[in-house]
Amino acid sequence: MEKLVIIPTYNEKENIENILSAVFGMNQDFHVLVIDDGSPDGTADIVKNLVSNYPGQLFIEERKGKLGLGTAYIHGFKWALAKGYQFIFEIDADFSHNPKDLPRLYDACKKEGADVAVGSRYVNDGGVINWPWDRIVLSKGASYYTRMITWMPLKDPTAGFICYKKEVLEAINLDAISFVGYAFQIEMKFAAWKLGFKIKEVPIIFQDRTQGISKMNKGIVKEGIFGVIKLRWNSMFKNYRNKVRNTSNELSGVSAVK
Ligand SMILES: Nc1nc2c(ncn2[C@@H]2O[C@H](COP(=O)(O)OP(=O)(O)OP(=O)(O)O)[C@@H](O)[C@H]2O)c(=O)[nH]1
Ligand SMILES: [Mg+2]
Predict the structure, then answer these.
(1) Is 83 near ligand 1, meaning CB less than 6 Å away?
(2) What is residue 240's predicted lDDT score, i.e. its pLDDT?
(3) How far is Cα 50 from Cα 94, in angstroms, rounded to an integer?
(4) Which of 183, 114, 195, 115 is nearest to 146 (CA)?
(5) CA distance 204 to 185
């Protein structure tokens, strides 16, 4: 039980089979957990039909409705910790993140001393291709804004292509993570940073999706804008570290997961 890649999906029927083939095709012993939120396009059925092709390697958790990216990952993290995985990865289903970069994120944690490896668009040798200018402005703006407010020393704080060592996820009180969209990605990194974990940015080339539709919306942007201020505020006045640290020996909610 070494490496688990968590893929959250909502209406990804055009991408899911290909992304699974790409991850398993590397033959690097990655297991995959898909968290599907009742996708009306039948994404979960596609995955369930593929489970027998990848016995003991492919898993799916289905939730009843679209509950957001953040809670999907929290569900997946608890599942991964309950099963004893050592390295837990986040990746989008839409090939914006290249699965071939997974081993570089792994190496950063396994061999180069990072606790969290972040696939970063905005460090040297990183980049973005085919994204419309308004998405680039929004993403870069969000990065500057987050750094300005939180002082977190990361070039790509909204990144969603990550490898966490299990110790990081065990140390964080996952029930205290409250955001669901981009802000969730910022919040997880912020919590890891505040708890003293070492975060390393690994350059990646991010590509716009070519298949399926974006789930980006105004609510996600709004949550990001106010969420970052809330994080900073909480970290200043409310003993944020104690709130975000997991103090129980039990992993909360794991039994509810499986
Ligand atoms: N389980 C679950 N997955 C979600 C939800 N919202 C988005 N996703 C998945 O999260 C990943 C990222 O979502 P995207 O729609 O690609 O969002 P984005 O990358 O910001 O925007 P685009 O690349 O423009 O589409 C994809 O794999 C989605 O299918 C959700 O509510 N629940
Ligand atoms: Mg995407």
Answers:
(1) no
(2) 83
(3) 18
(4) 183
(5) 17
DSSP string, 46-62: HHHHHGGGSTTTEEEEE
- 187, two tokens: 């919040």
Interacting residues of 20 by C-beta distance below 8 A, sequence separation 6+: 7, 32, 47, 50, 54, 58
Q: Please compute Rg for the chain using Cα positions.
A: 17
Residue 215: closest CA among 3, 40, 34, 29: 40
Q: Are 102 and 91 in contact (CB under 8 A)?
A: yes
Split the chain (258 residues) into runs of 10 and give each run's mean pLDDT: 96 98 98 98 98 97 95 98 98 97 98 98 96 91 95 96 98 95 94 97 96 85 91 84 81 44
Q: Which helix (H) or strand (E) holds 88?
A: strand 87-90
Rounded to the nearest angstrom, the gap between the alpha carbon of residue 123 and the centroid of all alpha carbons in its chain is 19
What is the distance of C-alpha 216 from the center of its chain? 15
Beta carbons within 10 angstroms of residue 207's beta carbon: 16
Q: What single letter denotes the amino acid at residue 253?
A: G
Residue with tokens 């839409």: 94
Which residue among 92, 130, 218 is best mutated to probe the pocket of ligand 1, counting the most ligand atoms within 8 A of its Cβ?
Answer: 92
What ligand has the least distance to the C-alpha of 216?
Answer: 1
CA 16 to chain centre: 16
How remote is the CA of residue 236 from the centroid of ligand 1, in Å? 31
3-state secondary structure of 32: strand
DSSP H helix total and E strand total for the chain: 10, 9
| pTM, entire model | 0.94
